[in-house]
Design brief:
By secondary structure, the chain is mainly α. It is 38% helix and 0% strand.
């Protein structure tokens, strides 16, 4: 209710397991409405049965990232800021010029070969 006032109307404090699990379901639905990607939202049993706590943690961090893009939110920050799209357009000439360059990530052996390498003792027959 702090992020979206009125989104959760009733919090169940008792009444059995299913009523308490309903609180988790309401939180999950609020996350989806708020803008958290579906892939980041955990399953109810992940928290209730403590099956997948890392997924629950990921959901909380995703909620923190999502809160940062809402202008009405001015609370503390949790997790990194969502990245902005930085679309680039290259001409055909620029793309062709890049094909002839050997990327440094490919590495180079500068003419080296494996002659003279010795790993341990030779095989005696």
């Amino acid at each position: 209710n702090k992020l979206m006032p009125g989104c959760i109307t009733k919090v169940n404090t008792g009444g059995g397991q299913f009523k308490l699990m309903e609180n988790i379901n309401k939180f999950q639905e609020m996350c989806k409405v708020y803008g958290v990607p579906e892939i980041d939202v955990f399953q109810t049993v992940d928290l209730w049965e403590r099956r997948n706590i890392p997924q629950v943690t990921q959901c909380i961090f995703a909620l923190g990232r999502t809160a940062q893009i809402h202008p009405e939110y001015n609370g503390p920050v949790l997790g990194p800021k969502l990245s902005d799209e930085n679309r680039r357009t290259f001409s055909d000439e620029q793309l062709r010029a890049g094909e002839g360059i050997i990327n440094l990530q490919y590495g180079t052996n500068k003419g080296a070969n494996q002659s003279g390498q010795n790993f341990g003792n030779t095989r005696h027959m």
